[in-house]
Amino acid sequence: MDNSPIINAFKQMQVPLMIIGVEGEILHCNNSTHQLFGYDSNDLIGRNVTDILPTTSVAKLNAHIKPPAIDASINGLIGRSRRGDAISLMVQATAWNDDEHGLQHSLIFKNATEDAKVDSLAERELIRANNALKGAQIGVFEYDSITDTVIVSDIWRDLLELAPSDTTDVQVEWRERLHPEDIEAAQEPTRICLEGISERASCEYRLRTKDGSRWRWIRASTTVDLKDPDGKVTRIVGSMTDITPQKEAENDLRRSVAQFRSAFDNATVGKAIIGLDGSFLDANAALCEFLGYSEEDLLKTNFQTLTHPDDLDADLYKLDLLKAGSIPAYQIEKRYIRADGAVVWGLLSVGMVKDAEGKPDHFISQIADVTEQNQLREMRSEFVTTVSHELRTPLTSVLGALSLLSSFDDEPFSDDVQRLIYIAQQNGKRLHALVNDILDFEKFSARQNLLVLSKHRIVGLLEEAVLANMVTAQKFGVRYDIGFQESAVTGYVDPIRFQQVMTNLLTNAAKFADKDSAIEISVKSHPKEVRISITNQGDGIPDTFKDQIFKPFSQAENSATRSRGGTGLGLNISKQIVEQTGGTIGFDSTQDGKTTFWFTVPVDKPN
């Protein structure tokens, strides 16, 4: 009621006004009304209108309105102020039926003693009130059961698309336009009121447009208005409103809900609706099968209970970020404990649904079974690790033997033999580096490497890295230059793995730099991180390769790149080291051949 166009219009008026309910209770009135009758703000709300007007009931007040009119001007009323003083009043009364509260009246008061200027203002406000009634587009009708006649308002005729000059029998027209399936429902409110079952009734039905092109939805309400001395209902008043837009919205929503329900229930991956406390509010068949529970049993538990203890903290941390609005959604792999005690792997994707006020309401989760993929990944990792270890032991012996042979001076080998020994040594070293890289790659991929972070002066570590890679620089005919503009800056690193990252980046920079050029190493401090950059001038990174550069075993497809050697694992290992120690890594490459690889280390120790 408070949101209707009529009430909104009334609230803007500067003249005394009020709205009264079925029993005469005062529902709304403005400050001007309180001032007119000498009451404090809101003191009149809830009182009966008979406290201030000389009338004994709402029916007496309503008798001034002669159908088909819905309003009337009442002159000569003598109201009573709070102190009991008489107030000469003119009242404009307007009646209408509210779907929820029944027959109501709006009263606009004018103090009969006010000057003409105030009278003029009241008239203008009255016009606004009448316009508001029209703007509400509520058709009003009155049915006389004695004469079986109906009187309708202009808006009622408008809803039936009947011109003022149209002499069509409105009852016949209305009945012919009713949807065949809704005839009984449309006539039910009138029957209920006439038979005395209830004072008020309402219904919804479909009404065909005049051109027959479509159906409109109508909401109708009826109220008993008059009875004879024997209590028989002789007059009914009612209202009619076009609710087609609301019905269309309801139907669209219903279809949308049905589509979601079908997609949810029939999805081949597990789906669930999770409460803020972690309880399962709904789950589909795929999730029940994955976790080994019936739907009834699953809805009695929560995701915390079903999550493997070792994976719970990581999930809860992400969930807290989601609830705080720090992230829009998240995805993690974690282990679940089935009803039979078996441990399975699931790829969990979680999104949050908010309520109308923007507060977290519940979560939508999707869980894909990745148990087999994880088992295969573990088998592959074990296989690669086993093969690599089996290769490294004999390879170390072979390299030792070759090194011993190359050191013999007493009986030098022929040039051909020495060349073969040298080739064998170089290939052995490359194979040894490959085995080491594969082992590192597998350990970092499985997060099995222990990283020990401590605070270090970054420039000191860079100087160590440059000294350790001087042979590489000489091999490719380049030099390393360190910028010392921020020599005192510190960060948290694992010093051994930091040197591994620097060696990979410095070696790459040297391989692809122009001969006799300088590779620039710079350090820049930021509030939460330190950024280390390695820049060279030479062969740029092809556009087709930029998306793959940090992927394992990736190398640009050209003969020049292949001739420089490498396993294709260095940058991937560097990325894993940097990210697992709390930093980020990336690169920038321009068309003129200038390439910068950079990575960051945290200023504060990561959690």
UniProtKB/TrEMBL annotation:
Residues covered by the PAS domain: 2-53, 256-311
Keywords, sorted A to Z: Kinase, Phosphoprotein, Transferase, Two-component regulatory system
PAC domain sequence ranges: 201-255, 330-382
Residues annotated as domain Histidine kinase: 386-605
InterPro entries from the UniProt entry: HATPase_C_sf, HATPase_dom, His_kinase_dom, HisK_dim/P_dom, HisK_dim/P_sf, PAC, PAS, PAS-assoc_C
Pfam families, sorted: HATPase_c (PF02518), HisKA (PF00512), PAS_3 (PF08447), PAS_9 (PF13426)
EC number: 2.7.13.3
Gene3D superfamilies assigned to the protein according to its UniProt record, in alphabetical order: 1.10.287.130, Histidine kinase-like ATPase, C-terminal domain (3.30.565.10), PAS domain (3.30.450.20)
Alphabetized GO MF terms: phosphorelay sensor kinase activity
Known catalytic reactions: ATP + protein L-histidine = ADP + protein N-phospho-L-histidine
Residues in coiled coil: none
Class in the EC hierarchy, top level: transferase
Matching PROSITE patterns: HIS_KIN (PS50109), PAC (PS50113), PAS (PS50112)
Protein name: histidine kinase
Species the sequence originates in: Pacificibacter marinus
